[in-house]
Write a structure and sequence with these properties.
The protein is mainly alpha-helical and 271 residues long. The protein is built from 10 helices and no strands. 75% of the residues lie in helices and 0% in strands. The mean pLDDT is 85.
Length: 271
């Protein structure tokens, strides 16, 4: 059973890695630039020359979709990593220590958690302005509190364990106890949560770009591509369906990967 789960994880990781490699080499594989315009080829349907058709500016949709994969997936990975890092560090501190500073940090996390994620991300991105970096910062701002609460709830019972008390009596510093003794115990759930969040983050990045608060044209980003093509939904539906399908497939792959990782780690914990 464990071998089957390991093979499934390897397969899903391989598909995601293959997609990233293809996105980085898209221009060389397809011999089409995702940004070069050919107005005479505008809104052409799928053909042997352009497998997924062209957009309103005559740009190859397959090349742009692959280029969008690089931007969207790398941004999502960066957001998930940064959110997990910030939230976990605060959660470690709040779970191990007590006092007014801990109470203030937890109340701050609760304030962030009380808002609908996408609504708050739209508000933050609107304040910061458009752009991929600002969109990533907005999503990070609403994602880190989840990790703070998760890690804090995992750490609180651990600080009363005998091996933690033994480490304190042996003269271990707070940093050594947190990162050498406690962090290995909580890193698994944090990793699984980050993997589960990747699909949601990709959707949020695309949503902000669709609303004009993320990557702006001519950037090859799936949400932005759908937004700029929505006026041609009836006459050239492939211009919307192609980036939309890319979002659905990518989110599904990450969701399957996260579920497989959770099953794998749960099996190890039970054993």
């Amino acid at each position: 059973m464990a071998s089957h789960k390991r093979k499934k994880i390897t397969l899903l990781l391989g598909l995601i890695l293959l997609g990233l490699i293809a996105s980085c080499l898209a221009e060389y594989i397809l011999h089409y630039s995702p940004y070069e315009q050919h107005l005479s080829l505008a809104l052409q349907g799928p053909s042997f020359q352009h497998w997924l058709g062209t957009d309103v500016y005559g740009r190859d949709l397959l090349a742009r979709t692959l280029a969008g994969a690089k931007l969207t997936i790398i941004t999502a990975l960066a957001v998930a990593l940064l959110s997990a890092l910030i939230g976990s560090c605060i959660g470690l501190f709040c779970g191990y220590r007590q006092g007014k500073a801990v109470t203030c940090l937890l109340r701050l996390a609760d304030i962030f958690l009380s808002f609908p994620t996408m609504v708050f991300a739209i508000a933050v991105a609107g304040i910061l302005g458009g752009g991929t970096f600002n969109a990533a910062a907005a999503i990070t701002a609403v994602t880190w509190p989840k990790y703070t609460r998760l890690v804090r709830n995992l750490v609180s019972p651990l600080r009363r364990e005998y091996y933690i008390e033994a480490a304190q009596m042996s003269g271990f510093t707070t940093g050594q106890i947190l990162f050498q003794q406690i962090l290995p115990e909580v890193i698994g759930p944090v990793f699984i949560t980050a993997a589960l969040d990747l699909g949601t983050i990709i959707t949020e990045i695309a949503g902000l770009s669709f609303l004009g608060l993320g990557a702006a044209p001519p950037a090859a980003e799936w949400g932005s591509m759908m937004s700029s093509s929505r006026l041609y939904m009836q006459t050239a539906p492939w211009t919307v369906f192609v980036p939309g399908a890319a979002i659905v497939i990518t989110v599904a792959l990450f969701q399957l990967l996260a579920d497989s990782l959770r099953d794998f780690f749960d099996t190890k914990l039970v054993r």
